[in-house]
Amino acid sequence: MQLTDRDPGLKRFFICGSALRGQPDHKNLQSAKFITEASTRPRYRLHAVGNGWHPGIYEIDSGGIAIPGEVYELTPQQYKNLMDGEPPDLYEGRVMLEDGEVISAMLYPRELIEQHNWPDISNFGGWAAYKQAN
């Protein structure tokens, strides 16, 4: 298993929602360096949280999917700006990418998703595909 954050001044971050290229919150990355497109290992579920306002992902023991996204390198200021723009209840956690890299990403509490019965959109092919279809 690889760990991220290779340069102590930069933070690698997996983006899989409204800050993806072509999505409305991409500006929150403030020209962060795009590294690559990537997907998680199939260990997560993806939901449309807050009436489809943003995605919520969480890890699951079985029945997960691979979530497509993008990897960026963020300076400390870009990281702060990204965190300042995140909606309530999202929290920074770690996800495992297909290649085994463990990287920071924004997760959402499964309990809140279940409590609000927010729709599971795991089979749409990612956040951008879901937004395009809706």
From TrEMBL:
InterPro entries named in the record: AH_C (IPR053844), GGCT-like (IPR013024), GGCT-like_sf (IPR036568)
Family annotation (Pfam families): AH_C
Entries under Gene3D superfamilies matching the protein: Gamma-glutamyl cyclotransferase-like
Domain Allophanate hydrolase C-terminal: 12-131
CDD domains, per database record: GGCT_like
Protein name: Gamma-glutamylcyclotransferase
